[in-house]
Every structure is written in C-alpha cells, then in structure tokens.
C-alpha cells in the first residue's frame, strides 16, 4: 500500500499534479507522516509556490534531514523565493558540502551571491545619497554671494520639470532634480573640482561659477535666455547633453554627457574647454558624484 502511494506521488510529480500530492498527503494524519511523505509534501508546496508552508513542513523533519543534501536544497529553494537569501545561502552551502558540484545548487549559490553583491552596492549608494541629502541647503549653497540671485529660483513643480526635460530632450538625473526641489539653482560654497583625484601629482582642477536650476525664469537657468541651449548654440559646444554649470571663463562649461547612457539614462559629468579645441574631460560618473567631489577653493 505504501509503495503504491509513493509511486503515485512520483507519477503526479512528473505530471505536475502538485495539488494531488498535497491533497493525498494531508489526508494522512500528521502523526502517521514520515520523513519521505513530508519531503514529498514540501517539494509539492515548493512547486505550487506556497513557500511559507513548504518551510514549515521541512522544519518538521529538520533533524532527520541534517545529512540529506536534498533536504537542504529543497528548504534552500523555499528560502530563496521567500527572499530570505541568507537562510537560502546557508542551506545551499550545506547541500553543496554533502553533495559537491551539483549544478542546480551551484546555480542558486551564484544567484544569491549576485543578489547579495547588488544589495550591498545599493545600500552603499543609498548611504552616500542619504549623507549627501542630509547636508542642508544652507551648508551647500552660498546665498550671500553677490551673483547668487542670477541663478536661484523657486522650487520647480513636477509639470515644470517635465516641460524642461521635453524642451532639452534629456531626462534630468534624479539627484539633480532632488537638489533643485530643495534649492533651485545657485552658487555652491565649494566650487573647485580636482581632476585625477587627490593621488595625482599634478592636481589640475576646474572651478565652477554656479549651477543652473530647472526653469526659464532666470537667464542662467536650464531653459533661460542664457541657459543650456543658448550656451551650446552660441559657443559651438558639442551636442552631447545639457550644460549644468557655468565656469569663470566663458570658454568653459560643465555638462551632463548622455553619449553612453542615452537621453533617458544617467549621464556622466564632463568639462568642455572651447579654448582647447572643445576638449572633453570626464569629471564624475554621475551628478551626485560630481557635487560630492566639489571642494573649497582655499
């Protein structure tokens, strides 16, 4: 009788009749279910994507499953799809120790490694972003500067942001938009950007005058009369993106460079020197990295 049931369970599994397996086993009183039956039940629940229930069943036979690679693999599978990646990793590592080089186990370990690396990178980016956003506008902007009024405007509405992006034909970086909603354009207290990093023996640098805000109201705004399009067209600058900051010299600008990212991607920040044959010098991989890299001039 029992052999017939096990054979039937295997047949249902091959035919993807997982509900039949669950129904058949749950009809058996709990105290009469052994390791093999509960293993079948847990596997069927996994296949039905009922992962919480699967974990509950596998934990009922945890002691018996300690030296069974398949038990560790199956509970690892449930943990993985529940996004409990640390638990899943431990389970798959144990399965690999018991049955080395199983392709499915190694594949899940690789997937978990990639997800953990991605999560760490995201956490690091979030921490950097939070730190940058925790710097108050008063700390970043020099509103007492005589020229500050030429750049600064009221916080842009979502409608204004959309219309400016449509006119420019480029999607503005999220960090830039966030900053402009807090303080729309102006002159930073720190305006020096060192090229090549602090380890460079010859510390060449560029200095900005101010950052253009989102709008049309001020001449020195993205779509103002002396804004990005005007600067590019009048100065003959390359059509690679958006002028985001002016420099003391009329022959230099800082631009968002969309050549690699595409118009809707995250642009790099570059310096363009008209006097040097429109030489393009990379500054930072993102606007956030650029503003975080600004230093005091003295």
From TrEMBL:
Superkingdom classification of source: Bacteria
Entry-linked SUPFAM superfamilies: SMI1/KNR4-like (SSF160631), TPR-like (SSF48452)
TPR repeats mapped onto the chain: 69-102
Cross-referenced InterPro entries: Knr4/Smi1-like_dom, Knr4/Smi1-like_sf, TPR-like_helical_dom_sf, TPR_rpt
Gene3D superfamilies xref list: SMI1/KNR4-like, Tetratricopeptide repeat domain
Protein's UniProt keywords contain Membrane: no
Keyword Lipoprotein appears in the UniProt entry: no
Knr4/Smi1-like domain mapped to chain residues: 155-293
Alphabetical keyword list: TPR repeat
Stated name of the protein: Tetratricopeptide repeat protein
């Amino acid at each position: 009788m029992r052999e017939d049931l096990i054979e039937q369970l295997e047949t249902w599994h091959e035919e993807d009749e997982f509900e039949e397996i669950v129904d058949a086993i749950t009809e058996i009183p709990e105290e009469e279910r052994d390791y093999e039956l509960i293993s079948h039940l847990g596997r069927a629940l996994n296949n039905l994507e009922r992962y919480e229930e699967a974990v509950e069943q596998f934990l009922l036979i945890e002691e018996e499953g300690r030296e069974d690679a398949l038990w560790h693999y199956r509970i690892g599978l449930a943990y993985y799809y529940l996004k409990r990646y640390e638990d899943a990793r431990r389970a798959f590592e144990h399965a690999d120790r018991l049955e080395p080089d199983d392709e499915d186990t190694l594949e899940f370990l690789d997937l978990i490694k990639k997800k953990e690396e991605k999560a760490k990178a995201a956490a690091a980016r979030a921490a950097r972003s939070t730190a940058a956003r925790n710097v108050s506008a008063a700390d970043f902007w020099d509103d007492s500067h005589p020229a500050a009024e030429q750049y600064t405007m009221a916080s842009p509405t979502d409608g204004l942001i959309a219309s400016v992006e449509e006119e420019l034909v480029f999607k503005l970086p999220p960090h830039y938009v966030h900053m402009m909603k807090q303080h729309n354009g102006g002159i930073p207290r720190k305006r020096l950007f060192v090229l090549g990093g602090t380890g460079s023996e010859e510390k060449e640098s560029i200095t900005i005058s101010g950052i253009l805000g989102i709008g049309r109201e001020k001449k020195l705004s993205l779509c103002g009369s002396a804004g990005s399009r005007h600067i590019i067209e009048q100065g003959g600058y390359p059509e690679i993106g958006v002028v985001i900051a002016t420099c003391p010299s009329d022959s230099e600008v800082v631009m968002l460079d969309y050549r690699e990212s595409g118009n809707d991607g995250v642009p790099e920040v570059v310096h363009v020197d008209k006097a040097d044959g429109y030489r393009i010098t990379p500054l930072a991989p993102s606007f956030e990295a650029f503003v975080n890299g600004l230093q005091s001039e003295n």
